[in-house]
Design a protein that fits this description.
Order of helices and strands: HHHHHHHHHHHHH
Strand content: under 5%
Radius of gyration: 19 Å
Largest sheet: none
Number of domains: 1
Structural class: mainly alpha
Mean pLDDT: 82
Helix content: over 70%
Number of helices: 13
């Protein structure tokens, strides 16, 4: 398809900002399709963005699998490009949802309803006002997120688009969360808009990197199952790289949980209450 060719291997590996801008475009294309054909089902937009991103990011999987089959030497320098491109795709999707939400609030209706029943419900906000950080809470959050991380790995392993779906899903909810917080408190007049928007990035960045590394690990291993002999050295190299990526992802996820409980939450608490 034309859009897929716009995000060819050369463009995506050399121009991460290009990936960012094209991901924003994908969000608006998905919204247009959803508005025309599924006007009452805003959750459909997440699936449509996934469908647009998945074939394009598949180019990266091909490149990554060829890199990983050579071994795990210079591990982080080898994976720097693909992680950066996935991360810019996430940021572009996040920015697209945020811009769209400011223009058409109904576009994120599904996310808003879910947040109002859970994360920003009156009972949750009441408990958050009395929140006290602890390792027990951080461990519980890590365990909860780890289940999603492992689910993302297996989705990527058996169906690569599944991991992209989780990345898009997280981006849409984070955009909706920030928009809801900004809409409920008058930070525009108090100079707090940059703070309320920036504070969650403290834990969002390592958490997003964890899901991205998991997606890369699963999709490249999936391709290796199809393209390499199981007993070959190339397959063993890909497997080793995938395991290292997954371990790194878990470390990032644990770091994100600690940051969310001990840094992000107290900062938001002091700002909101």
């Amino acid at each position: 398809m034309v859009l897929e060719q716009l995000l060819g291997k050369r463009a995506i590996t050399r121009h991460a900002p290009y990936v960012f801008l094209l991901s924003i475009l994908y969000v608006f294309i998905a919204f247009s399709v959803q508005y025309l054909f599924f006007p009452e089902q805003s959750v459909t937009m997440i699936l449509l963005v996934t469908l647009l991103l998945a074939p394009s990011l598949h180019h990266l999987t091909n490149v990554e699998e060829k890199i990983e089959r050579t071994g795990s030497k210079h591990f982080f320098s080898k994976h720097k490009t693909i992680i950066k491109c996935y991360f810019f795709a996430f940021l572009g999707t996040l920015a697209g949802f945020f811009i769209l939400g400011t223009i058409a609030s109904d576009a994120l209706a599904y996310q808003t309803i879910m947040l109002e029943h859970e994360d920003i419900s009156p009972s949750t906000l009441s408990r958050f006002e009395q929140f006290t950080p602890s390792l027990e809470i951080a461990a519980g959050l890590f365990t909860h997120n780890l289940s999603y991380l492992l689910m993302g790995f297996f989705l990527a392993l058996f169906y690569g688009a599944g991991s992209v779906f989780l990345i898009v899903y997280n981006a849409s909810f984070f955009a909706a969360f920030v928009l809801q917080i900004l809409g409920r408190w008058e930070f525009f007049t108090q100079g707090g808009i940059l703070q309320i928007g920036a504070i969650p990035f403290i834990h969002l960045v390592p958490e997003s990197l964890a899901f991205i590394m998991t997606a890369i690990a699963g999709t490249t291993l999936s391709r290796a199952f199809l393209c390499e002999q199981l007993k070959s050295q190339a397959f063993k190299n890909v497997l080793q790289n995938s395991v290292l990526l997954l371990i790194s992802a878990i470390v990032f996820l644990a770091t994100a949980a600690l940051l969310e409980v001990f840094v992000t939450a107290p900062m938001l608490q002091s700002l909101l209450f």
